[in-house]
Design a protein that fits this description.
The complex is a heterotrimer of chains A (114), B (132) and C (247).
Chain A lengths: L6 H29 L9 H9 L1 H28 L5 H24 L3
Chain B lengths: L2 E4 L2 E4 L11 H32 L1 H12 L1 H23 L1 H4 L3 E2 L2 E2 L2 H23 L1
Antiparallel strand pairs in B: 1-2, 3-4
Helix pairs in contact in B: 1-2, 1-3
Chain C lengths: L2 E10 L9 E10 L4 H12 L18 E4 L2 E4 L11 E5 L6 E3 L2 E2 L2 H9 L21 H11 L6 H5 L1 H5 L6 H11 L7 H8 L13 H5 L6 H21 L6
Parallel strand pairs in C: 1-5
Antiparallel strand pairs in C: 1-2, 3-4, 3-5, 6-7
Helix pairs in contact in C: 2-6, 3-6, 6-9
The chains are: A mainly alpha (114), B mainly alpha (132), C alpha+beta (247).
Chain lengths: 114, 132, 247
């Protein structure tokens, strides 16, 4: 038996689990308000643009979105297995690719906001 | 239940896709795992939102229009519920994963869970005050 | 003393004659302070001497009488009759092959348990003349709860991952490895990591938590496994991202 490489993703999963547990409920509450036309100031174009124009803002958004992506990708992989889908490798490749593309896309989007 | 014989022993096979219906604790576990579908989809929504911000005010407005749709509202409500379940199920097991030893005793699990809840509430209030 | 007529439904399986297990019901008048094991002993002594099951101490120490009682992994000696209705279903522990009646084949567990090196591996050879090892209460606390495991295998029956992926080393074996890893006298962690940090090891676990819920000795295997994951993850990042840091 050899040591597994799962820790790479598990580290992100665990960190993302904590980050999403702390932040996602209040975020979804704010976006729900937005969807109901009680737009909070955070979810206006001006506010988001200003936040993302600072380096610290970019960093916070990037770290949170990345952790959240990898957290859910990894948990979905386990969930697929729990529902009896046994092509684990294929599922893992698809989900981690989506997470990677999301990470890169977020990085580029943030870099292009000045 | 699929079953088969092996070396005079009888093997009871576990149903691959429906095993979790057997016990309430398994259903609670699966509910916890399924929150990842909502949180994952929601994060992709955030990725798109950031992309739309980068593209300019008109693109962001288009994104908001989708959010206003009944489906957008329903999605946000269900994600909020899933996120709440994720948070509580996550915090409640922190003493098991990260016990804290203080000299000759472990810090009570209640204190560790409680500290997480306090931080959670503090962050939520901070974002609400800053965001609304 | 109050008595109650209870229907005990027991899974029966005789490998010499049966193709499939069947359920046999016995009516037993049980005293209220009885445990399920008492009812089984009553059946064995008075109603049906062919009924086979394991038991020894009758006091939750030997770990032999683990069985499914109304679908829940329990020690039959700790399952009090007064907590149940008038019908109790008793089956052998799930996820293990049935050898006969309530007796399961536990070879797989024994092999896995042995594979994690569940014994002290001292950091260096220590002559007897050096005297005993000294441990402070805080050193003992780090692993004490894991020493309480009685190898009853209830956690393996509760663990859906073990049911789905039989290669999984499983809760009790990884917990006992963690017990020795946490011991200040031990220096064998890297040997055990080779086994428990493999994909059949701790990484099959997804923290369902059922093992800790059914554990009759409150060992909390689920907690141990998460701690092993956390430590293995730190190991991995150290080995791959900071190779200059000495282990």
């Amino acid at each position: 038996m050899s040591k597994s490489n799962k820790p790479i993703v598990w580290g992100l999963f665990a960190a993302g689990g904590m980050a999403t547990a702390l932040v996602t409920p209040v975020l979804t509450f704010l976006t729900l308000l937005t969807a109901l036309h009680f737009t909070p100031s955070l979810f206006t174009y001006e506010c988001l643009h200003t936040m993302a124009s600072y380096w610290i803002g970019k960093l916070i958004i990037f770290v949170f979105v990345t952790l959240s992506l990898w957290h859910s990708a990894h948990r979905m992989r386990i969930t697929a297995h729990d529902f009896g889908i046994r092509s684990d490798l294929l599922i893992a490749i698809i989900l981690y690719c989506v997470a990677a593309i999301g990470t890169i896309l977020t990085g580029f989007s943030l870099l292009s906001i000045h | 239940m699929g079953k088969k014989m092996n070396k005079n022993s009888y093997i009871r096979e576990v149903p691959r896709a429906s095993w979790f219906l057997k016990q309430p604790r398994y259903i609670r576990y699966m509910a916890r795992e399924v929150t990842s579908l909502f949180i994952g989809a929601y994060t992709l929504m955030l990725v798109i939102a950031i992309k739309r911000v980068a593209e300019g005010p008109d693109a962001f407005q288009n994104f908001l229009e989708i959010l206003y749709s009944p489906l957008g509202i329903l999605f946000n409500i269900s994600t909020l519920l899933a996120a709440l379940y994720h948070s509580t199920s996550w915090f409640n097991v922190t003493p098991q994963a990260m016990p804290i030893q203080w000299g000759e005793e472990f810090v009570s699990g209640r204190i560790i869970v409680g500290a997480h809840y306090i931080i959670w509430i503090a962050i939520s209030i901070l974002i609400l005050v800053f965001g609304v | 003393m109050s008595e109650r007529q209870i229907q005990i439904e027991v899974l029966r399986y005789n490998p010499e004659t049966d193709i499939e297990p069947t359920i046999q019901a016995y009516t037993v008048s049980c005293l209220n302070e009885w445990v399920v094991l008492d009812a089984l002993n009553y059946i064995k002594d008075n109603l049906d001497a062919t009924l086979s099951y394991r038991w020894s101490c009758h006091m939750a120490v030997c770990g032999s009488c683990g069985m499914m009682i109304n679908g829940e992994p329990k020690l039959a000696c700790k399952a009090f009759i007064h907590e149940y209705s008038d019908r109790i279903r008793v089956e052998p522990l799930v996820h293990f092959p049935i050898k006969r009646d309530l007796i399961t084949d536990i070879e797989d567990f024994i092999a896995k348990f042995a594979s994690v090196k569940p014994y002290l591996i001292p950091k260096e050879k220590r002559p007897i003349s050096d005297g005993e090892y000294q441990q402070k209460p805080e050193d003992l606390l780090k692993f004490k709860q894991y020493t309480l495991c009685i190898n009853c295998m209830l956690c393996y029956s509760a663990c859906p991952k073990y049911g789905l992926v039989p290669e999984f080393i499983g809760p009790a074996a990884i917990s006992i490895a963690h017990r020795y890893n946490q011991d200040s006298r031990d220096g064998g962690r890297h040997h055990r990591q080779e086994i428990i940090a493999s994909s059949e090891g701790v990484w099959e676990c997804s923290f369902v938590g059922a093992c800790s819920e059914v554990c009759p000795k409150h060992v909390d295997p689920a907690g141990a496994l998460q701690q092993v994951k956390l430590a293995s993850t730190i190991d991995w990042y150290r080995e791959h991202l900071m190779p200059w840091v000495k282990k």
